[in-house]
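Q: I have 175 residues here and want to know how they pack in 3D. Can you give me a structure?
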Amino acid sequence: MKRNEVFTLGARYIILILLGLFNLKLFYLIFTPLTIYPVFWLLSIFYGNANLFPANLIFFGGSYAQIIPACVAGAAYYLLLILNLTTPMSITKRVKSISFIFLIFLVLNIARILIFAGLLVAGYQYFDLTHKLTWYFGSTIMVVLIWFVNVWLFKINNIPIYTDIRNIFEDVSRR
């Protein structure tokens, strides 16, 4: 491995470790307002007199909904970043890929919240069941699909973690 490849490899994993040590606070700091304010704005359009209260509580259409950290899904952003940073690629491709996966996840997450807000106002009988199933299974499927679309779109030919380990072993065995 060349010196810059070793530096890049180390930097990618150090970034992931540092972000993980701070309990995902950076993800929530960035994505909480990016989730809440568009949701509030769109609910204001759909339901008229929507109000945003402290603790991220939104009143709309006669109902209250609180956007909690699980709704923001900071862990999903971190998982997408893990997949990205553990996959060897050029810096240009990496920046485009991270921008794409974060933007797509943000848009889909806002859409998911809006759909559930509509179900809540409509008094959907299976709201709680649907909400839990979507949270436990749908969010995982959404992250996996976003990653696979990202791989296809950016023509990523490497496998997260595996390619790095393979490259290290090949380099060590050549010496």
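Q: Anything worth noting?
A: The helical segments are 3-21, 25-47, 69-72, 74-85, 91-122, 127-153, 162-174. The chain has a mean pLDDT of 93.
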